[in-house]
Amino acid sequence: MKDIEQIKAHARAIKTKQREELEDAGQLLAAPGYQVVVIRKPWPVGRRGIVIGLIGTSFSPRAVIDFDGTFAALPLDAIARHAGAIDCAKAQIRHNVALIKFRGGEFLE
């Protein structure tokens, strides 16, 4: 009986860790309504705007961003949720991996 309880406790710990990874990765995604900052040239580095929507294919995803009334479609690897964070393209990959781990269960850990 003690072994079963240990297994259940371990499974809960793994699931909690995976849920936290998923939530952390989600905090870095470009999503409509969230502010982002440009981190790569040829666009004006440091400029902030609000994401209006996401367009493009899985090979060239772009975010439509409102820069105080001026709209632009920038690639996800040119923007980040805040200065110093990873770009939104890498964040999308991390989020996808975390989602697969979360749905896949303990054996992927």
Rg from C-alpha positions? 18 Å
**Main sheet strand line-up:** 4-3-2-1-5
Strand content: 15-25%
Number of strands: 5
Name the helix and strand elements from N-terminus to C-terminus, one letter apiece. HEEEEEH
- The stretches of 5 or more residues where confidence is low (pLDDT under 50) are none
Q: What's the average pLDDT?
A: 87
Helix content: 25-40%
Give the termini distance in whole angstroms: 24 Å
Overall 3D geometry? elongated
Largest sheet: 5 strands, antiparallel
Count of DSSP-assigned helices: 2
SS-based class: alpha+beta
Concise summary:
This protein is an alpha+beta fold and 109 residues long. It has helices spanning 2-26, 88-104; strands at 35-38, 48-55, 62-67, 70-75, 79-80.
Describe the overall structure.
The protein contains 2 helices and 5 strands; from the N terminus they run αβββββα. It is of the alpha+beta class and 109 residues long. It has a 5-stranded antiparallel beta sheet with strand order 4-3-2-1-5, with no helix packed on it. The longest helix has 25 residues, at 2-26. The mean pLDDT is 87.
Question: Which secondary structure elements does this structure contain, and how are they paired or packed?
Answer:
Layout: H1 2-26, E1 35-38, E2 48-55, E3 62-67, E4 70-75, E5 79-80, H2 88-104
Supply the key terms.
alpha+beta, 109 residues
